[in-house]
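Human
Can I borrow your eye for a moment on a structure tokenisation matter? Give me a protein, with the fold worked out from its sequence. Write it directly below this note and I will take it from there.

Assistant
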Amino acid sequence: MIIQNLGKHIKIIFLIISLLILLKIEDVMAVEKDNLIYLDLKDGRVTIEAKPDIAPNHVKRIKELVSEGFYDGIVFHRVIDNFMAQTGDPTGTGMGGSDKPDLKAEFSNAQHKRGAVSMARSSNPNSANSQFFICFEDALYLDGQYTVWGQVIEGMEYVDMIKKGNGDNGMVENPDKIIKMELAK
């Protein structure tokens, strides 16, 4: 009888511990709402988790520009199939940016895996401003050369639907646009 009751108590304790562990894991995995950015495309909503722990100045800049409505209506001017979709240039040429100063690179060990969101720049590593790209596929050869500031956590299928460009440069005729980009509330 005592052994039988002890077995029940052990099962209950095990169940409680298991639930506590699951709750803790869920807690750790929860994304801070302050770091969610919504990117509305013609086919659906993309959710980006910003990573201020690895690129604080770039995340701050992106959030500032999003708050100002800077990205709303901006085209994906360079889209290369099986590589990436680039946006953030108000001129649509790949040569423009915001009126804010360029940012110093914040390279990290973050990888350019599928869904990585990274800053575009010129050949100068400290020239990122407002343009960014989303990787369609892993592009690990970019690691340590471009600042990764976020990761698509939902809606990557909509990124995959962005109209692709022609040729090696990926310039797009009649490109898709960002309908709206906003911070989670």
